[in-house]
Design brief:
Blueprint: H1 8-16, H2 20-29, E1 35-36, E2 56-57, H3 181-198
Parallel strand pairs: 1-2
Amino acid sequence: MAEKQLSNEELAALLRQGQVATFNAYREQFPNQEIDFSGQDFSGLELVEANLEHPIELGNADFSEANLYKANFCAANGQNVCFREANCEEACFNEVEFPDAVFIEARCAEARLVNAKFDGASFKNADCIAAVFTDTSLRVANFENADLAEACLAGTTLEQANFKDAYIETANFAKPQGLSKELSLQIIKNLLEGWEEEND
C-alpha cells in the first residue's frame, strides 16, 4: 500500500512502466483522488484492465495503438482524447464525456459506451461490432466506413452524424434522435430486407 498520495506524473509513470496492477491497487486505496492526465502520452502501452474511471481528466491524452482491452474509463472526462488504432475491445466508456475523441481504425468490438457524450468523435474505419452506444450523444460523430454489425445505438442522439459507407445492416437504431433522412431510409431498407429473408 502507498504511504502517501502520488502525483499525476508518478501515476502516469506507473502505467508507462507496465505496472497496471499497482496503479489499479493505488486507485482502490485513493478512489477520490482527482487525477489529471491531460496531454499525457500512453501510446502503444499495455493497459489491459486499467482503471481510468472518474475522477480523472484525460483531455488531449494519447492512447493510440495502446492495448486497452477491458479498460475502465467510466465517467472520465476529456476533449480530443486519441484512441487511434487502439484495442478498446470490451472496454467501458459508460457516462464519459469525450467530445471530439479519435477512434479512427480502433477496435471497439463489444465496448460499452452507454449514456455518454461523444459529440464530434470520429469512429472512421473502426471495428464497432456489437458495441453498445445506448442513450449516447453522437452529434456530428463520424462513422464513415465503420463496422457496426450487431451494434446497439438505441436512444442515441445522431444529429448530423455521418454513416457514409458504414456497415449498419444488423445494427439496432431503436428510438434515435436527430436521424438524417438518408440514414432513416437505409434503416427501413435493412428492416425490409431482413423481413424478406425471414419469410423466404
